[in-house]
Design brief:
Strand order of the largest sheet of chain A: 4-1-5
Structural class of chain B: mainly alpha
Number of strands of chain B: 3
Structural class of chain A: mainly alpha
Strand content of chain B: 5-15%
CATH topology of the largest domain in chain B: Methane Monooxygenase Hydroxylase, Chain G, domain 1
Shape of chain A: elongated
Subcellular location (chain A): Nucleus
Largest sheet of chain B: 3 strands, antiparallel
Protein name (chain A): DNA replication complex GINS protein PSF2
Helix content of chain A: 40-55%
Distance between the termini of chain B: 63 Å
Keywords (chain A): DNA replication, Nucleus
Pfam family, one (chain A): Sld5
Number of domains of chain B: 2
Number of strands of chain A: 5
Strand order of the largest sheet of chain B: 2-1-3
Oligomer: heterodimer
Number of helices of chain A: 11
Number of helices of chain B: 8
InterPro entries (chain A): GINS_A, GINS_bundle-like_dom_sf, GINS_Psf2, PSF2_N
Radius of gyration of chain B: 25 Å
Shape of chain B: elongated
CATH class of the largest domain in chain B: Mainly Alpha
Largest sheet of chain A: 3 strands, antiparallel
Chain lengths: 279, 195
Protein backbone atom coordinates (compact mmCIF):
# COMPACT_ATOMS: atom_id res chain seq x y z
CA UNK A 1 0.00 0.00 0.00
CA UNK A 2 1.37 3.40 -0.88
CA UNK A 3 0.20 6.92 -0.41
CA UNK A 4 0.59 9.56 -3.04
CA UNK A 5 1.48 12.68 -1.12
CA UNK A 6 0.46 15.10 -3.84
CA UNK A 7 -3.16 14.07 -3.55
CA UNK A 8 -5.45 14.92 -0.71
CA UNK A 9 -7.02 12.56 1.78
CA UNK A 10 -9.84 11.73 -0.61
CA UNK A 11 -7.49 10.21 -3.11
CA UNK A 12 -5.65 8.27 -0.45
CA UNK A 13 -8.80 6.34 0.20
CA UNK A 14 -9.25 5.73 -3.50
CA UNK A 15 -5.72 4.51 -4.06
CA UNK A 16 -6.02 2.34 -1.05
CA UNK A 17 -9.05 0.68 -2.49
CA UNK A 18 -7.53 0.06 -5.87
CA UNK A 19 -4.48 -1.62 -4.39
CA UNK A 20 -6.47 -3.99 -2.28
CA UNK A 21 -8.64 -4.75 -5.30
CA UNK A 22 -5.63 -5.61 -7.41
CA UNK A 23 -4.32 -7.82 -4.69
CA UNK A 24 -7.58 -9.71 -4.66
CA UNK A 25 -7.33 -10.41 -8.35
CA UNK A 26 -3.72 -11.38 -8.21
CA UNK A 27 -4.40 -13.83 -5.46
CA UNK A 28 -6.31 -16.07 -7.82
CA UNK A 29 -4.00 -16.91 -10.69
CA UNK A 30 -5.48 -19.00 -13.45
CA UNK A 31 -2.34 -21.10 -13.66
CA UNK A 32 -3.14 -22.69 -10.32
CA UNK A 33 -6.17 -24.26 -11.91
CA UNK A 34 -4.24 -26.70 -14.06
CA UNK A 35 -2.31 -27.90 -11.04
CA UNK A 36 -5.47 -28.63 -9.20
CA UNK A 37 -7.29 -30.41 -11.95
CA UNK A 38 -4.52 -32.96 -12.16
CA UNK A 39 -5.75 -34.46 -8.97
CA UNK A 40 -8.51 -36.78 -9.96
CA UNK A 41 -10.42 -36.48 -6.76
CA UNK A 42 -11.09 -32.82 -7.24
CA UNK A 43 -11.64 -32.97 -10.95
CA UNK A 44 -15.38 -33.14 -10.98
CA UNK A 45 -15.81 -30.38 -8.46
CA UNK A 46 -13.61 -27.95 -10.32
CA UNK A 47 -15.23 -28.75 -13.63
CA UNK A 48 -18.60 -28.08 -12.22
CA UNK A 49 -17.56 -24.88 -10.56
CA UNK A 50 -16.09 -23.59 -13.77
CA UNK A 51 -19.18 -24.28 -15.76
CA UNK A 52 -21.44 -22.85 -13.14
CA UNK A 53 -19.67 -19.52 -12.94
CA UNK A 54 -18.82 -17.30 -15.83
CA UNK A 55 -15.62 -15.73 -14.67
CA UNK A 56 -12.94 -18.11 -13.61
CA UNK A 57 -11.43 -15.64 -11.20
CA UNK A 58 -14.60 -15.52 -9.21
CA UNK A 59 -14.69 -19.22 -8.77
CA UNK A 60 -11.11 -20.40 -8.52
CA UNK A 61 -10.60 -19.25 -5.00
CA UNK A 62 -9.72 -22.26 -2.92
CA UNK A 63 -10.08 -20.87 0.55
CA UNK A 64 -12.18 -18.03 1.72
CA UNK A 65 -10.08 -14.95 2.31
CA UNK A 66 -11.91 -12.31 4.20
CA UNK A 67 -11.12 -8.94 2.81
CA UNK A 68 -10.98 -6.55 5.72
CA UNK A 69 -9.84 -8.93 8.40
CA UNK A 70 -13.49 -9.49 9.09
CA UNK A 71 -14.49 -12.44 11.22
CA UNK A 72 -16.29 -14.84 8.92
CA UNK A 73 -17.73 -17.62 10.98
CA UNK A 74 -21.37 -17.22 10.17
CA UNK A 75 -20.93 -17.15 6.41
CA UNK A 76 -18.47 -19.98 6.21
CA UNK A 77 -20.47 -21.89 3.65
CA UNK A 78 -20.62 -19.37 0.84
CA UNK A 79 -17.38 -18.42 -0.81
CA UNK A 80 -18.33 -14.82 -1.32
CA UNK A 81 -20.63 -12.80 0.86
CA UNK A 82 -22.91 -10.19 -0.60
CA UNK A 83 -20.52 -7.42 0.32
CA UNK A 84 -17.66 -9.11 -1.47
CA UNK A 85 -19.62 -9.62 -4.65
CA UNK A 86 -20.59 -5.99 -4.43
CA UNK A 87 -16.91 -5.11 -4.10
CA UNK A 88 -16.13 -6.92 -7.33
CA UNK A 89 -19.05 -5.21 -9.03
CA UNK A 90 -17.58 -1.83 -8.27
CA UNK A 91 -15.01 -2.39 -11.01
CA UNK A 92 -17.63 -1.96 -13.70
CA UNK A 93 -17.24 1.19 -15.71
CA UNK A 94 -19.74 3.98 -15.42
CA UNK A 95 -20.07 7.30 -17.20
CA UNK A 96 -19.88 10.41 -15.04
CA UNK A 97 -20.29 14.10 -15.75
CA UNK A 98 -17.76 15.85 -13.54
CA UNK A 99 -18.35 19.30 -12.14
CA UNK A 100 -14.73 20.06 -11.36
CA UNK A 101 -11.48 20.40 -13.21
CA UNK A 102 -8.90 17.79 -12.28
CA UNK A 103 -5.85 16.22 -13.89
CA UNK A 104 -5.64 12.62 -14.92
CA UNK A 105 -5.69 10.18 -12.01
CA UNK A 106 -2.95 7.57 -12.30
CA UNK A 107 -4.22 4.54 -10.45
CA UNK A 108 -2.98 0.99 -10.48
CA UNK A 109 -6.01 -0.17 -12.39
CA UNK A 110 -5.53 2.47 -15.06
CA UNK A 111 -5.54 6.17 -15.84
CA UNK A 112 -8.76 8.09 -15.59
CA UNK A 113 -9.49 11.58 -16.66
CA UNK A 114 -8.58 14.35 -17.17
CA UNK A 115 -11.79 15.67 -15.72
CA UNK A 116 -13.37 18.75 -17.28
CA UNK A 117 -16.66 20.24 -16.09
CA UNK A 118 -19.65 18.95 -18.10
CA UNK A 119 -17.54 16.61 -20.24
CA UNK A 120 -18.66 13.00 -19.77
CA UNK A 121 -15.92 10.53 -18.98
CA UNK A 122 -15.86 6.92 -17.97
CA UNK A 123 -14.48 5.72 -14.62
CA UNK A 124 -14.89 2.66 -12.39
CA UNK A 125 -18.02 2.64 -10.31
CA UNK A 126 -16.19 2.94 -7.00
CA UNK A 127 -14.43 6.06 -8.19
CA UNK A 128 -17.67 7.50 -9.51
CA UNK A 129 -19.47 6.87 -6.24
CA UNK A 130 -16.64 8.34 -4.19
CA UNK A 131 -16.73 11.50 -6.29
CA UNK A 132 -20.52 11.61 -6.22
CA UNK A 133 -20.51 11.45 -2.43
CA UNK A 134 -18.32 14.54 -2.37
CA UNK A 135 -20.52 16.32 -4.88
CA UNK A 136 -17.88 16.40 -7.60
CA UNK A 137 -19.88 14.77 -10.36
CA UNK A 138 -23.20 13.40 -11.55
CA UNK A 139 -23.51 9.72 -12.40
CA UNK A 140 -25.15 8.76 -15.63
CA UNK A 141 -27.27 5.62 -15.55
CA UNK A 142 -26.06 2.85 -17.87
CA UNK A 143 -28.13 2.18 -20.97
CA UNK A 144 -29.60 -1.07 -19.73
CA UNK A 145 -31.12 0.73 -16.74
CA UNK A 146 -33.71 2.58 -18.78
CA UNK A 147 -37.37 1.86 -18.16
CA UNK A 148 -38.00 0.71 -21.76
CA UNK A 149 -35.13 -1.73 -21.75
CA UNK A 150 -36.00 -3.16 -18.34
CA UNK A 151 -39.65 -3.58 -19.27
CA UNK A 152 -38.64 -5.45 -22.38
CA UNK A 153 -36.24 -7.66 -20.44
CA UNK A 154 -38.89 -8.44 -17.85
CA UNK A 155 -41.37 -9.47 -20.53
CA UNK A 156 -38.85 -11.71 -22.23
CA UNK A 157 -37.86 -13.26 -18.92
CA UNK A 158 -41.47 -14.13 -18.24
CA UNK A 159 -42.05 -15.53 -21.71
CA UNK A 160 -39.11 -17.93 -21.85
CA UNK A 161 -39.00 -20.23 -18.84
CA UNK A 162 -35.70 -21.86 -19.82
CA UNK A 163 -33.49 -18.97 -20.85
CA UNK A 164 -32.02 -15.98 -19.13
CA UNK A 165 -31.88 -12.62 -20.83
CA UNK A 166 -28.46 -11.05 -21.24
CA UNK A 167 -27.99 -8.49 -18.52
CA UNK A 168 -24.69 -7.18 -17.13
CA UNK A 169 -22.94 -9.74 -14.94
CA UNK A 170 -23.27 -7.50 -11.90
CA UNK A 171 -26.68 -6.03 -12.61
CA UNK A 172 -28.06 -6.63 -9.11
CA UNK A 173 -25.17 -4.93 -7.37
CA UNK A 174 -24.65 -2.10 -9.83
CA UNK A 175 -28.31 -1.12 -9.78
CA UNK A 176 -28.33 -1.36 -6.02
CA UNK A 177 -25.29 0.89 -5.70
CA UNK A 178 -26.64 3.42 -8.14
CA UNK A 179 -30.03 3.50 -6.47
CA UNK A 180 -28.43 3.95 -3.09
CA UNK A 181 -25.87 6.57 -3.95
CA UNK A 182 -27.15 8.44 -6.94
CA UNK A 183 -30.92 8.52 -6.65
CA UNK A 184 -31.17 12.14 -7.78
CA UNK A 185 -29.29 11.43 -11.03
CA UNK A 186 -31.59 8.67 -12.23
CA UNK A 187 -34.79 9.08 -14.20
CA UNK A 188 -37.95 7.27 -13.02
CA UNK A 189 -36.24 5.94 -9.93
CA UNK A 190 -39.23 4.13 -8.50
CA UNK A 191 -40.14 2.49 -11.78
CA UNK A 192 -36.57 1.30 -12.32
CA UNK A 193 -36.35 -0.02 -8.80
CA UNK A 194 -39.56 -2.00 -9.10
CA UNK A 195 -38.62 -3.38 -12.49
CA UNK A 196 -35.23 -4.58 -11.32
CA UNK A 197 -36.75 -6.19 -8.29
CA UNK A 198 -39.27 -7.98 -10.50
CA UNK A 199 -36.59 -9.17 -12.89
CA UNK A 200 -34.54 -10.45 -10.00
CA UNK A 201 -37.45 -12.40 -8.59
CA UNK A 202 -38.43 -13.92 -11.91
CA UNK A 203 -34.90 -14.97 -12.64
CA UNK A 204 -34.35 -16.45 -9.23
CA UNK A 205 -37.52 -18.46 -9.48
CA UNK A 206 -36.30 -19.72 -12.83
CA UNK A 207 -32.99 -20.80 -11.34
CA UNK A 208 -34.79 -22.63 -8.62
CA UNK A 209 -37.16 -24.50 -10.89
CA UNK A 210 -34.29 -25.28 -13.24
CA UNK A 211 -32.24 -26.84 -10.49
CA UNK A 212 -35.11 -29.06 -9.50
CA UNK A 213 -34.59 -31.05 -12.64
CA UNK A 214 -31.21 -32.23 -11.51
CA UNK A 215 -30.67 -35.95 -11.62
CA UNK A 216 -27.93 -38.44 -11.03
CA UNK A 217 -26.83 -38.32 -14.65
CA UNK A 218 -26.19 -34.60 -14.60
CA UNK A 219 -22.52 -33.82 -14.47
CA UNK A 220 -22.77 -30.20 -15.47
CA UNK A 221 -25.48 -27.66 -15.82
CA UNK A 222 -25.27 -24.91 -18.35
CA UNK A 223 -26.72 -21.70 -17.04
CA UNK A 224 -26.06 -18.99 -19.54
CA UNK A 225 -26.25 -15.32 -18.64
CA UNK A 226 -26.46 -15.95 -14.93
CA UNK A 227 -25.51 -12.96 -12.82
CA UNK A 228 -22.84 -12.86 -10.14
CA UNK A 229 -25.23 -12.52 -7.26
CA UNK A 230 -27.35 -15.40 -8.47
CA UNK A 231 -24.31 -17.61 -8.83
CA UNK A 232 -23.06 -16.83 -5.36
CA UNK A 233 -26.51 -17.42 -3.95
CA UNK A 234 -26.93 -20.95 -5.24
CA UNK A 235 -23.33 -22.08 -5.21
CA UNK A 236 -22.99 -23.57 -1.70
CA UNK A 237 -26.09 -25.67 -1.96
CA UNK A 238 -25.73 -26.63 -5.54
CA UNK A 239 -22.11 -27.69 -5.47
CA UNK A 240 -22.76 -29.89 -2.49
CA UNK A 241 -25.80 -31.44 -4.10
CA UNK A 242 -23.88 -32.22 -7.28
CA UNK A 243 -21.15 -33.84 -5.23
CA UNK A 244 -23.70 -36.08 -3.57
CA UNK A 245 -25.20 -37.03 -6.87
CA UNK A 246 -21.77 -37.81 -8.21
CA UNK A 247 -21.08 -40.11 -5.28
CA UNK A 248 -24.35 -41.95 -5.69
CA UNK A 249 -24.22 -42.18 -9.44
CA UNK A 250 -21.33 -44.63 -9.54
CA UNK A 251 -21.39 -47.17 -12.36
CA UNK A 252 -20.73 -50.02 -9.96
CA UNK A 253 -23.48 -49.04 -7.59
CA UNK A 254 -26.30 -48.30 -9.95
CA UNK A 255 -27.37 -51.16 -12.15
CA UNK A 256 -28.48 -50.24 -15.65
CA UNK A 257 -31.80 -52.03 -15.24
CA UNK A 258 -33.51 -49.42 -13.17
CA UNK A 259 -37.07 -50.14 -12.25
CA UNK A 260 -37.80 -46.78 -10.73
CA UNK A 261 -37.87 -43.97 -13.24
CA UNK A 262 -38.51 -40.34 -12.79
CA UNK A 263 -41.76 -38.74 -13.76
CA UNK A 264 -41.86 -38.30 -17.53
CA UNK A 265 -42.27 -34.54 -17.36
CA UNK A 266 -39.16 -34.02 -15.30
CA UNK A 267 -37.03 -36.33 -17.40
CA UNK A 268 -38.00 -34.60 -20.63
CA UNK A 269 -37.12 -31.31 -19.05
CA UNK A 270 -33.86 -32.67 -17.82
CA UNK A 271 -32.77 -33.91 -21.19
CA UNK A 272 -33.31 -30.59 -22.85
CA UNK A 273 -31.24 -28.95 -20.16
CA UNK A 274 -28.32 -31.29 -20.34
CA UNK A 275 -27.37 -30.44 -23.90
CA UNK A 276 -24.16 -28.44 -23.79
CA UNK A 277 -24.06 -26.16 -26.76
CA UNK A 278 -20.95 -24.32 -27.81
CA UNK A 279 -21.12 -20.63 -27.19
CA UNK B 1 -12.66 -47.51 1.15
CA UNK B 2 -12.61 -44.77 3.74
CA UNK B 3 -12.76 -41.36 2.08
CA UNK B 4 -11.23 -39.37 4.86
CA UNK B 5 -9.54 -41.01 7.81
CA UNK B 6 -10.20 -38.10 10.16
CA UNK B 7 -13.77 -37.41 9.10
CA UNK B 8 -15.86 -37.53 12.27
CA UNK B 9 -19.06 -38.35 10.47
CA UNK B 10 -17.33 -41.19 8.71
CA UNK B 11 -16.20 -42.64 12.04
CA UNK B 12 -19.62 -42.31 13.60
CA UNK B 13 -21.22 -43.88 10.59
CA UNK B 14 -18.96 -46.90 10.85
CA UNK B 15 -20.10 -47.42 14.42
CA UNK B 16 -23.62 -48.28 13.27
CA UNK B 17 -24.53 -51.90 13.74
CA UNK B 18 -25.50 -54.28 10.99
CA UNK B 19 -26.60 -57.86 11.43
CA UNK B 20 -24.43 -60.41 9.72
CA UNK B 21 -24.66 -64.08 9.09
CA UNK B 22 -21.56 -66.06 10.00
CA UNK B 23 -20.66 -68.65 7.39
CA UNK B 24 -18.08 -70.46 9.48
CA UNK B 25 -17.54 -71.20 13.10
CA UNK B 26 -15.45 -68.48 14.71
CA UNK B 27 -13.33 -69.48 17.68
CA UNK B 28 -13.03 -66.99 20.53
CA UNK B 29 -15.35 -64.40 19.02
CA UNK B 30 -18.17 -64.98 21.51
CA UNK B 31 -17.60 -61.47 22.91
CA UNK B 32 -19.23 -60.05 19.83
CA UNK B 33 -22.55 -61.66 20.64
CA UNK B 34 -23.96 -60.52 23.98
CA UNK B 35 -26.42 -63.41 24.07
CA UNK B 36 -23.83 -66.08 23.51
CA UNK B 37 -23.01 -68.61 26.21
CA UNK B 38 -19.77 -69.90 24.72
CA UNK B 39 -16.52 -68.38 23.63
CA UNK B 40 -17.17 -69.31 20.05
CA UNK B 41 -19.66 -68.25 17.41
CA UNK B 42 -21.24 -71.14 15.59
CA UNK B 43 -21.56 -71.35 11.87
CA UNK B 44 -24.88 -69.88 10.75
CA UNK B 45 -25.30 -67.61 13.75
CA UNK B 46 -26.73 -64.13 13.22
CA UNK B 47 -24.87 -61.42 15.15
CA UNK B 48 -24.96 -57.62 15.22
CA UNK B 49 -21.52 -56.15 14.64
CA UNK B 50 -20.33 -52.64 13.77
CA UNK B 51 -20.03 -51.73 10.14
CA UNK B 52 -16.26 -51.30 10.15
CA UNK B 53 -15.82 -54.88 11.29
CA UNK B 54 -18.51 -56.25 9.04
CA UNK B 55 -16.95 -54.60 6.01
CA UNK B 56 -13.59 -56.26 6.47
CA UNK B 57 -14.98 -59.61 7.41
CA UNK B 58 -17.25 -59.57 4.42
CA UNK B 59 -14.36 -58.86 2.08
CA UNK B 60 -12.68 -61.99 3.46
CA UNK B 61 -15.87 -63.93 2.81
CA UNK B 62 -16.36 -64.91 6.47
CA UNK B 63 -19.84 -63.49 6.68
CA UNK B 64 -22.77 -62.40 4.58
CA UNK B 65 -24.50 -59.12 5.30
CA UNK B 66 -28.17 -58.72 6.03
CA UNK B 67 -29.33 -55.22 5.21
CA UNK B 68 -30.62 -53.11 8.12
CA UNK B 69 -34.35 -52.72 8.37
CA UNK B 70 -34.41 -49.25 6.91
CA UNK B 71 -33.47 -50.55 3.50
CA UNK B 72 -36.23 -53.15 3.37
CA UNK B 73 -39.18 -53.43 1.05
CA UNK B 74 -41.68 -51.61 3.25
CA UNK B 75 -39.54 -48.53 3.62
CA UNK B 76 -38.85 -48.51 -0.08
CA UNK B 77 -42.55 -48.44 -0.76
CA UNK B 78 -42.95 -45.53 1.63
CA UNK B 79 -40.23 -43.61 -0.12
CA UNK B 80 -41.81 -44.27 -3.48
CA UNK B 81 -45.07 -42.90 -2.17
CA UNK B 82 -43.75 -39.61 -0.86
CA UNK B 83 -40.03 -39.40 -0.35
CA UNK B 84 -39.86 -36.04 1.38
CA UNK B 85 -42.17 -36.99 4.26
CA UNK B 86 -40.25 -40.09 5.28
CA UNK B 87 -38.45 -39.71 8.57
CA UNK B 88 -35.00 -40.90 7.55
CA UNK B 89 -33.28 -38.99 10.34
CA UNK B 90 -34.89 -41.11 13.01
CA UNK B 91 -33.97 -44.43 11.44
CA UNK B 92 -30.42 -43.64 10.64
CA UNK B 93 -28.72 -40.24 10.46
CA UNK B 94 -26.20 -41.75 8.05
CA UNK B 95 -28.73 -43.30 5.71
CA UNK B 96 -26.91 -42.47 2.47
CA UNK B 97 -23.33 -42.99 3.60
CA UNK B 98 -24.13 -46.33 5.11
CA UNK B 99 -26.02 -47.35 2.02
CA UNK B 100 -23.08 -46.41 -0.14
CA UNK B 101 -20.78 -48.49 2.01
CA UNK B 102 -23.10 -51.46 2.05
CA UNK B 103 -24.08 -51.42 -1.60
CA UNK B 104 -20.96 -53.08 -3.04
CA UNK B 105 -20.80 -55.81 -0.40
CA UNK B 106 -24.45 -56.67 0.07
CA UNK B 107 -26.20 -59.29 -2.04
CA UNK B 108 -28.99 -56.82 -2.90
CA UNK B 109 -28.18 -55.31 -6.30
CA UNK B 110 -30.88 -52.65 -6.27
CA UNK B 111 -29.65 -50.77 -3.21
CA UNK B 112 -27.51 -48.32 -5.16
CA UNK B 113 -30.23 -47.26 -7.53
CA UNK B 114 -32.70 -47.06 -4.69
CA UNK B 115 -30.46 -44.62 -2.83
CA UNK B 116 -30.02 -42.48 -5.92
CA UNK B 117 -33.75 -42.43 -6.49
CA UNK B 118 -34.36 -41.48 -2.87
CA UNK B 119 -31.81 -38.67 -3.02
CA UNK B 120 -33.32 -37.27 -6.19
CA UNK B 121 -36.81 -37.18 -4.79
CA UNK B 122 -35.88 -35.66 -1.49
CA UNK B 123 -33.47 -33.17 -3.03
CA UNK B 124 -36.23 -31.47 -5.01
CA UNK B 125 -38.37 -30.93 -1.98
CA UNK B 126 -35.44 -29.66 0.02
CA UNK B 127 -34.42 -27.16 -2.63
CA UNK B 128 -37.84 -25.52 -2.48
CA UNK B 129 -38.06 -25.47 1.26
CA UNK B 130 -34.56 -24.38 2.10
CA UNK B 131 -34.69 -21.25 -0.02
CA UNK B 132 -38.13 -20.09 1.01
CA UNK B 133 -38.23 -21.08 4.65
CA UNK B 134 -38.54 -18.46 7.36
CA UNK B 135 -35.06 -17.48 8.34
CA UNK B 136 -35.41 -17.20 12.07
CA UNK B 137 -37.29 -20.27 13.22
CA UNK B 138 -35.99 -23.80 12.98
CA UNK B 139 -38.34 -25.55 10.59
CA UNK B 140 -40.26 -28.60 11.61
CA UNK B 141 -39.11 -30.84 8.80
CA UNK B 142 -35.48 -30.47 9.83
CA UNK B 143 -36.00 -33.46 12.08
CA UNK B 144 -36.91 -35.62 9.10
CA UNK B 145 -33.58 -35.11 7.40
CA UNK B 146 -30.43 -37.15 7.64
CA UNK B 147 -27.13 -35.63 8.65
CA UNK B 148 -26.03 -35.14 5.08
CA UNK B 149 -29.28 -33.50 4.13
CA UNK B 150 -29.15 -31.15 7.08
CA UNK B 151 -25.76 -29.93 5.95
CA UNK B 152 -27.11 -29.36 2.47
CA UNK B 153 -30.13 -27.56 3.80
CA UNK B 154 -28.08 -25.31 6.01
CA UNK B 155 -25.76 -24.41 3.16
CA UNK B 156 -28.72 -23.16 1.16
CA UNK B 157 -30.29 -21.36 4.06
CA UNK B 158 -27.07 -19.63 5.01
CA UNK B 159 -26.45 -18.31 1.55
CA UNK B 160 -30.01 -17.01 1.41
CA UNK B 161 -29.50 -15.41 4.79
CA UNK B 162 -26.26 -13.78 3.69
CA UNK B 163 -27.96 -12.44 0.61
CA UNK B 164 -30.84 -10.98 2.59
CA UNK B 165 -28.42 -9.44 5.00
CA UNK B 166 -26.65 -7.71 2.17
CA UNK B 167 -29.90 -6.58 0.58
CA UNK B 168 -31.49 -5.15 3.69
CA UNK B 169 -28.38 -3.88 5.37
CA UNK B 170 -28.41 -0.44 6.91
CA UNK B 171 -25.01 1.13 7.43
CA UNK B 172 -22.48 0.35 4.74
CA UNK B 173 -19.44 1.03 6.85
CA UNK B 174 -18.06 -1.95 8.67
CA UNK B 175 -15.75 -1.67 11.60
CA UNK B 176 -12.74 -3.91 11.45
CA UNK B 177 -12.55 -6.20 14.50
CA UNK B 178 -8.91 -5.18 15.01
CA UNK B 179 -9.95 -1.67 15.96
CA UNK B 180 -12.23 -2.72 18.79
CA UNK B 181 -9.66 -5.00 20.29
CA UNK B 182 -6.96 -2.39 20.28
CA UNK B 183 -9.09 0.12 22.07
CA UNK B 184 -10.07 -2.34 24.75
CA UNK B 185 -6.44 -3.21 25.26
CA UNK B 186 -5.70 0.49 25.77
CA UNK B 187 -8.53 0.82 28.25
CA UNK B 188 -7.24 -2.11 30.20
CA UNK B 189 -3.76 -0.70 30.28
CA UNK B 190 -4.84 2.74 31.37
CA UNK B 191 -6.94 1.37 34.20
CA UNK B 192 -3.95 -0.63 35.24
CA UNK B 193 -1.83 2.50 35.28
CA UNK B 194 -4.35 4.33 37.41
CA UNK B 195 -4.29 1.71 40.10
Amino acid sequence: MFIHSALGSTEIALLDKSTSRDRLWNRTPLSSLSGITEQRAELCTWDRLLILGRTAELIVQPARNSMAGRASTELESSLFSGAEVEFLAEDDMVVIVPSLRMDTLHLICGDFGPFMPQVPTSVPLWLGIAMKKRGKCRLRAPEWMSVENLTQVLELERESPQEFQPLPFHYVEVSRLLLDNARDDLIDVYMVQTLIEDIRNVRFHKVQSGLQNLSGKTHAVKLKNLAAMEVSLIRPFFVRALEKFYLHDDEELVQPSQTETDTPLASVDRLSRRVLRPR
Amino acid sequence: MANNYYDLDDILMEEEYVSVHFRFEAKGLGVLDPGSEHDDIEAGAVVDIPLWLAHDLCLRKFITIKLPYFYNERIRKEIQADASCVDLGRWCPYFYEMGLRLAPISPDQTLGSFLLYCLQRRYKEMLCKSLTVALTTAPKFLTLLTKEEIQLFEAARDSMKAYNKWWFQGARLERAPVLGRKRRLNALLSSFELT
